[in-house]
Amino acid sequence: NAGVMQNPRHLVRRRGQEARLRCSPMKGHSHVYWYRQLPEEGLKFMVYLQKENIIDESGMPKERFSAEFPKEGPSILRIQQVVRGDSAAYFCASSPASETQYFGPGTRLLVL
Amino acid sequence: DAKTTQPPSMDCAEGRAANLPCNHSTISGNEYVYWYRQIHSQGPQYIIHGLKNNETNEMASLIITEDRKSSTLILPHATLRDTAVYYCIVRVAGSNDYKLSFGAGTTVTVRA
Asked: Which end of chain A is more exposed for a tag (fewer CB within 10 A), N or C?
């Protein structure tokens, strides 16, 4: 049973470009969570989604950030017009319900 | 507003048991104790969780005091690959308490 998959594992963008981070949950998991880890800091919750619904986006910046989890395909975290402060590791987790969350390997975003 | 308190760091000899303490004196009756670890540059890895009974799995054992105000994660035979930051988190399982709060954790260094 494959774990949570994230791609790309590393992403380099120039200021002003868009970043798209993808997350495929574990088989049978319909709940997806995104967390961000800034350099030398702990993980911070960003957003919680179920299929086709955003349940809680209270941890996500109001501007430039968006997330979706379509009926088919992976969950996408989208960052428009990236700035250097967006450089971080972005982790996705999934769970079968509101139970134990299992994390993916993360996407490390570097904004030049 | 941390719900748990952990020592910032600890060393352990390879092959010996590592005992990681966690204080959660304000834990409520329906909150579980979860343990995750994050090996450098990887995503958090779920280890174990429990409510009030001691738990054991292939990775570790979790000992929870009778008053539930503290717990200890035991890695029975630490290896160099167990070097990581270990996080103790309390949450209400199966509920809307899905925002995992990762504090500073305990940096465990296993030495040969």
From this structure: N
